[in-house]
Amino acid sequence: MRIAFRSDWRYNLRRSPWRLPKMLWHEAKWFCQRGWRGYSDLEVMGGLNYYLCDMLPDALRDLENCRGPAKLTDAQWQRRIECMASGLEAARGVMDQAETFAQEERAVKRFRRGWLVMLRWFWWL
What we know:
125 residues, mainly alpha, 0% strand, flat
């Protein structure tokens, strides 16, 4: 996953080589933070919503094969997981502004529906 706010070190090396040690320090720090807590300061500063909309759909789809709540069948659980994941993907499309106005309205509705499903079933994730 490439973060849009990350600086390109090759470009900065040509333009301002004196900044390279600081940039390498930040890259190493962010790498360690991702290992320790699963996210770095860069993702938080650069937009936590982008990070979550990139990471959570894949993580939710990994849960499709896990057993859900006892009162749901496997097919019902998989539908709910897919609703949550597609809602987050719709939110990413809205943030990227890649859709027309009509598509954006549908995407916002899909996000809201997925978010409500996530709120309802949050404790079983």
